[in-house]
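Sequence, please.
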């Protein structure tokens, strides 16, 4: 009679048949586990499954093989293999739990933009608690060590360890509070104390921040919890920036503000919404300080955008003839000339403006001194539809075209005004205005026009006439509607100038 393979191996090695049977089953289980591991590794490399999911499936198969092997042990060897099977089961359970936790946090904590998903403090805490439970189980079932008496007898040792590690424990609990309250997330730009940077990781003990200089800073969690925290990405992603710009005392505010606004609108990186603004901040003995207020999309672009803004302001100042004041004070031996007054040609152009009719030469000259003159080349935009403003342009020379969409609706020359509705009522520009030929304009702002109103109250009636003419043009077929619109516009005018 021919013996089977197991009987042959038993007789050849001198081992009992049951031992050979257990060894063969163990070898078969290991071979199956190796084949499954290889297949899952190949699938993970090709991107068919994620690595945490592959690890979870692999160790679930390993756990099943361990329990299957334990169930098929003969009764004579069951007691001897209990401890080995228990140890293998604990190892397999630990690997299953570890990959399950990793897979859960990867699934429900996706990456944000270009910031890769990082280790989560709750992820580490979950693994630690599972490991503690499995370790206690192993001590009880494999080594027959009861944890109850051990824990009660080590109260003094626990107190000593707690006192010596209070900073570490404080960082741990602070990290847990940060994860629960979520004052920031990975990828947010924050400021803690004097440290500014992007959060890349939150661990048990520290929060890792990478500064704009590409330096990694590890901030203890208890320090983050105690210090004043600023999150630049909440509640809105855009950031408000302010740059102080000095200007000479003799430069009219309308000229400086218009130059700053023109520079902000064309500077790369400045958001159109919310709209930028220029504000007069301070009047000093040798200069006037303005604030250029603008918004950027991301914190890490603030230096590049500030560079673009300051460069645009410098070039705009040079284009409009606004000089930057020198540092400190200077001694002059001769009196500096005041801003040049109006020329006879300019006075003649202003006298022909219906809104300014009846003003004397001194009043017109005062208006010129409180305003600024700008020259536009052919094709250059003087005003754009939809933009807000508080200025109007009096055309001193040249010719302009007024367009709505692609249709030209009017051409205006010397002695006419554009943009008066924005100055008088604050409403947005209703049309685009471009220079057709070299054009010089007197830019009058709301404060300069207020000077005219204070000296000549009769101008108010001319304003009312302008509103009525505009409303009648818009509602030619309905006089009551035109009258109501005129009254509404006039009420807005009075709210701005009274």
């Amino acid at each position: 009679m021919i013996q089977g393979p197991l009987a042959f191996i038993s007789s050849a090695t001198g081992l009992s048949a049951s031992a050979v049977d257990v060894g063969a089953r163990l070898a078969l289980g290991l071979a199956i586990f190796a084949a499954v591991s290889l297949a899952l590794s190949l699938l993970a490399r090709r991107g068919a499954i994620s690595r945490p999911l592959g690890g979870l499936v692999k160790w679930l198969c390993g756990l099943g093989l361990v329990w299957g092997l334990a169930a098929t042990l003969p009764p004579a060897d069951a007691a001897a293999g209990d401890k080995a099977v228990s140890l293998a089961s604990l190892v397999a359970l630990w690997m299953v739990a570890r990959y399950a936790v990793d897979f859960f946090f990867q699934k429900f904590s996706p990456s944000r933009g270009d910031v890769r998903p990082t280790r989560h403090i709750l992820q580490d805490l979950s693994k630690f608690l599972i490991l503690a439970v499995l370790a206690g189980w192993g001590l009880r079932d494999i080594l027959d060590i009861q944890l109850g008496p051990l824990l009660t007898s080590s109260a003094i040792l626990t107190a000593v360890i707690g006192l010596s590690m209070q900073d570490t424990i404080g960082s741990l609990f602070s990290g847990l509070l940060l994860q629960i309250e979520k004052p920031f997330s990975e990828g947010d730009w924050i400021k803690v104390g004097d440290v500014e940077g992007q959060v890349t990781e939150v661990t048990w003990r520290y929060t890792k921040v990478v500064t704009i200089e590409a330096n990694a800073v590890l901030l203890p969690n208890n320090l983050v919890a105690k210090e004043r925290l600023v999150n630049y990405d909440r509640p809105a992603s855009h950031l408000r920036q302010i740059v102080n710009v000095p200007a000479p005392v003799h430069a009219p505010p309308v000229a400086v503000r218009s130059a700053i606004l023109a520079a902000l609108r064309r500077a790369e990186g400045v958001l159109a919404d919310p709209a930028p603004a220029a504000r007069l901040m301070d009047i000093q003995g040798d200069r006037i300080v303005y604030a250029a207020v603008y918004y950027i999309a991301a914190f890490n672009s603030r230096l590049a955008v500030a560079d673009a803004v300051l460069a645009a302001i410098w070039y705009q100042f040079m284009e409009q003839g606004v000089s930057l004041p020198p540092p400190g004070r200077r001694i002059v031996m001769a009196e500096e000339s005041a801003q040049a007054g109006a020329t006879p040609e300019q006075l003649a152009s202003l006298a022909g403006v219906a809104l300014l009719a009846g003003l004397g030469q001194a009043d017109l000259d005062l208006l010129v001194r409180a305003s600024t003159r700008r020259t536009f080349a052919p094709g250059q935009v003087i005003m754009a539809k939809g933009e807000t403003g508080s200025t109007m342009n009096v055309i001193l020379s040249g010719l302009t075209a007024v367009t709505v969409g692609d249709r030209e609706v009017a051409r205006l020359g010397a002695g006419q005004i554009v943009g008066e509705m924005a100055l008088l009522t604050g409403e947005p520009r209703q049309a685009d205005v471009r220079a057709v030929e070299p054009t010089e304009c007197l830019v009058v702002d709301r404060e300069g026009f207020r000077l005219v109103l204070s000296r000549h109250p009769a101008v108010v009636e001319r304003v009312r006439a302008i509103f009525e003419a505009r409303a009648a043009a818009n509602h030619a077929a309905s006089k009551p509607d035109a009258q109501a619109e005129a009254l509404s516009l006039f009420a807005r005018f009075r709210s701005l100038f009274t």
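The first strand starts at residue 189 and ends at 192.
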